[in-house]
Known about the structure:
mainly alpha, 1 helix
Amino acid sequence: MGELGCTKLTKMDVKEIEGSKPVCMKLYKTNAEEHASIKKVTNEWKKYGIVIERSRTGEL
């Protein structure tokens, strides 16, 4: 995961659209195994700055 987004096969620029808002979804039920898997992935994303922690109300 440390090289997430790195490839020598292609090159791209991701541009933020002016006025766009972050994606935020309501919580949904998962079993313990799914919850652990989701938590592991999101923790890695946080570690590499892909996502940030937000409050339940969506405030930063």
